[in-house]
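Technical note accompanying the year-one report. For the benefit of new consortium partners, we illustrate the data format agreed upon in the data management plan: each record pairs a sequence with a structure-token string. No post-processing was applied to the example shown here.
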Amino acid sequence: MSEAVRVKPPLKVMLASPRGFCAGVDRAIQIVERTIEKYGAPVYVRHEIVHNRHVVERLKSMGAIFVEELDEAPDDRPVVFSAHGVPKSVPAAAKARNMIYLDATCPLVSKVHVEMQRHFDEGREIVLIGHAGHPEVVGAMGQLPEGAVTLIETVEDVQTFPVKNPDNLAFATQTTLSVDDTAAIVNALRERFPGIATPHKEDICYATTNRQEAVKQLAAACDLLLVIGSKNSSNSLRLVEVGLRAGAQAAQRIDDAGDIDPAWFEGVSTLGITAGASAPETLVEGVIATLSELYVLTVEEVSPVRETVTFKLPRALAS
């Protein structure tokens, strides 16, 4: 007698859109690929080009060597600076060593650097909202002399940090923060310092904002939200927080389909899926393929906004 065929239960999947690669990440990856094409392997990359293990491993297989500091790279091979940006001392050191270097800093991160420099040149004290130790924060603070920028991470920090001249302050923010958390910190800054100078345009990048907004659109309907992204990806971690705050019953960050725990799906009838800005779409496809072996899927795309942003490659690599 043949075994009874297991009937797969139904599962509704709500796919957040936009998700995954943003224009800055796409540009940074292309810069590494084109540098390898132009100069041959190996090409050195200072810090992970973007915070995604799968992206880094693929580029390693093409001939990229990832290092934490410039002095780990030889003088005679090209080096690429990551999308997060670097302190001014890094390109200065590369120039002093006559190295070929390419800067893959996201243009929206570079915009924050320019704003901070402008405020500094105009004599203002500068507050940076961000996470201590994140490469983007290290790079941003390294644009100016030591002590010129005060980092604050929470609303509580706003009440306690010392100020020389409360009437001559400006703030900037890391580009990958939670929109809502940052708004609370900005409001606290404005309450304490009504005259504080603000960015010309929002520092939190369009991609971070759009991905958080997409998650907010579907979270309340989800028994479980899966966020695909690496554990050191700031924008992926924020998506988990945003999803829970917006009403998801549970949320998990996963690197890929291999991290899925079937126990999470007990009682789950509606699943939300999104991906951080440095996670390739192939990882989303892998998660859906794995789930389709266990469930009869109904997939619905939730699209509050369409993205059309692109960034040019550096002139040295433009074809």
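Partners are asked to follow this layout when depositing records. The two ends are 65 Å apart (CA to CA).
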